[in-house]
Amino acid sequence: MADNYGQLTAQPEAMGLLGADRRVRSFTPSLLLDLPPEERPSAVAAMATTPDGAVLATRTLHSATNPDDTASEHTTTTEPWALQARDALTGRLAEHLAPAAQRSAPDLTDQDSTLIWMWRHTDPAGIRTWLHDRLDHGWELLPLLATLITPQQFPFPLIDNDTWAGLDALFTHDDLYTRLALLLSNSPDTAPPTDQHQTNILQALRDRRPDQPQATPDTTHTPS
Description:
By secondary structure, this protein is mainly alpha-helical. It has eleven helices and no strands.
């Protein structure tokens, strides 16, 4: 399944909400947990050999160790098998993202973006360091956010609760607001972005600013 993940051809069902990838993700955690604990790390590592397989492996491990999907952005279990699987996955994700470091933020592929989002599930501190290093060596934050955040799909908000939590894992909210302070301030000395998606992201971040009163956004739209 990991070898074919990313090339699934079944048409979405349930008014387009239930795609082939989501159906696969619904039963892979139980298949992983059916294995003896000592065999699970090697199975996860084998799944993650390809970039698409690494995406499925990460989602599988996260769901298997957070069965209610409410615990954390990252794998929190202390079971030895899960820690070994997590470390193996983190190494695979770093390998698959190595070519992305040579591209500019706007040139990241959809697969690059998905792998970045996945890395937060295995090692938030590691992906945060990786992203900060990219930002310190040429990448710009707003174009990066425009690549990572899917344009708004009505009726879902642009930055819902899941995306908000994911951004904290990837960057920390404090770092986001510090790095984007001038753009968020609407200062006349700072040229606003010409890209509408970037403009929408800035407004969503203004609305999400922790010291601003706000309604709780819908949580049904998950990040990539």
